[in-house]
Design goal:
401 residues; alpha/beta
């Protein structure tokens, strides 16, 4: 299929002038805009050419607006023709550690409508800024993904957020996304574990616990949002206290992010889901995880078998840690995330410090055909130092260690 033939929207018969207007609107769109209007959020086969064209188009525009990014492309021998032909590895990846130490921007700062930073658990943070076009593409993505996974609901609910109470001074991506998730269903209330009090954030788990107990006696669904580690620790505390609740029908446990400093207490997903059902009365099918990064603001949502299938808005390459060459599905390696969503910062191809495996879609019985990403954890501190040195050499034009 030619990349300009369809946006994936349902087509109906229309008069010639209406078809002409539609064709003119389509021709005026960037490839990225067409991609984020695609109707089926998991139709990777139907968007292969469009995705490659969107990456190439965005790389050209951002190189024109960001001299540092143009230098990176030149040093790494970027081959646009190979990318447009479908070789996504032809676009040089930028390590997240580079983003933390060398901020990149391809539009004037005044055009940034939203700013966010990573959590900074390693001492440094990545800074992201989104312009109007990036935000519009992101909004289309969120709407389609949450609609597909039946996360949108007109029924008001109460939110328990195991994270920071929003403040203008708090620019972390998690505080922004945690608040954003409370718009998937109308919010009757928002209760935060970390509340701002007398000039600093203070942990108020007891207040969260009291709210949870009150919600159990009400009629409105409850949705929890937080890191898996925080969710698990809260559920374990309640279990040890002998608490057994039955939250109202429609309640959900939603989680995002990793275990970070609680890696030593990490449990299998199945154990966490069993705990949610035992303590809160929330069935496994109402436990949902999200995955994303400030450098890669794509919403990955688990399917009914709890797998992160790759949506049309992104692609995932797994690279050999020693050579950085892409490896076949089923082989573990470093996770390389690609998307043309952001037009204000050149994060089209990001090399993370996550270890993962990409599986064929057929290996998951949920019915979604796109590949799914299994995250295995992060490289250790010594490995991060090695990756940082390798990243510096990589961007100077040398070979990876």
């Amino acid at each position: 299929m030619h990349i300009g033939e369809s946006t994936g929207e349902r087509q109906t018969a229309s008069p010639p002038y209406a078809r002409k207007q539609r064709e003119e609107r389509l021709a005026a769109m960037t490839y990225s805009d067409r991609l984020f209007r695609w109707r089926d959020p998991y139709d990777l086969a139907g968007t292969e050419s469009l995705f490659a064209a969107a990456l190439a188009e965005s790389a050209q525009r951002q190189a024109a607006g960001c001299p540092d990014y143009a230098r990176i492309l030149a040093l790494r021998g970027y081959d646009r023709a190979a990318l447009e032909a479908g070789d996504l590895s032809a676009l040089p990846p930028i390590p997240t550690l580079y983003c933390k130490r060398h901020p990149l921007l391809s539009v004037p700062e005044k055009k940034l409508l939203v700013r966010a930073t990573s959590s900074g658990t390693g001492g440094t943070v990545s800074r992201m800024g989104l312009d109007a076009g990036s935000l519009l593409r992101g909004a289309r993505m969120v709407w389609r993904m949450t609609r597909y996974h039946r996360l949108l609901s007109p029924r008001p609910c109460r939110y328990l957020i195991l994270g920071y109470q929003p403040r203008r001074e708090n620019q972390t991506a998690f505080s922004k996304t945690g608040f954003g998730f409370t718009f998937f269903a109308p919010a009757l209330s928002r209760t935060y574990a970390l509340r701002w009090h007398e000039g600093s954030y203070r942990l108020d788990m007891e207040g969260l616990r009291r709210r949870l107990l009150r919600c159990a006696g009400g009629r409105s669904p409850v949705r929890t949002i937080g890191f898996p580690a925080y969710t698990y620790l809260l559920l374990r505390q309640l279990e040890e206290e002998g608490v057994r609740l039955r939250l109202p029908r429609g309640s959900m446990v939603t989680m995002g992010g990793g275990w970070k400093q609680f890696e030593g207490q990490k449990v299998e997903k199945e154990a966490l889901y069993r705990l949610a059902e035992s303590v809160l009365g929330i069935p496994e099918e109402n436990c949902v995880e999200f995955f994303g990064a400030v450098e890669h603001p794509i919403l990955y949502t688990t399917c009914r078998r709890h797998h992160f299938h790759v949506p049309v808005y992104s692609r995932v390459l797994i690279r050999d840690p020693n050579t950085l060459a892409p490896v076949p599905n089923g082989t573990p390696g470093l996770v390389n995330l690609l998307t043309p969503m952001v037009g204000s910062v050149p994060v089209l191809s990001i090399m993370t410090d996550d270890l993962g495996v990409l599986h064929d879609g057929a290996e998951c019985p949920c019915g979604i055909q796109s590949p799914w990403l299994e995250l295995k954890g992060r490289v250790g501190v010594r490995d991060i130092v090695t990756c940082a040195a390798g990243a510096a050499e990589f961007l100077r034009g040398g070979s990876a260690p």
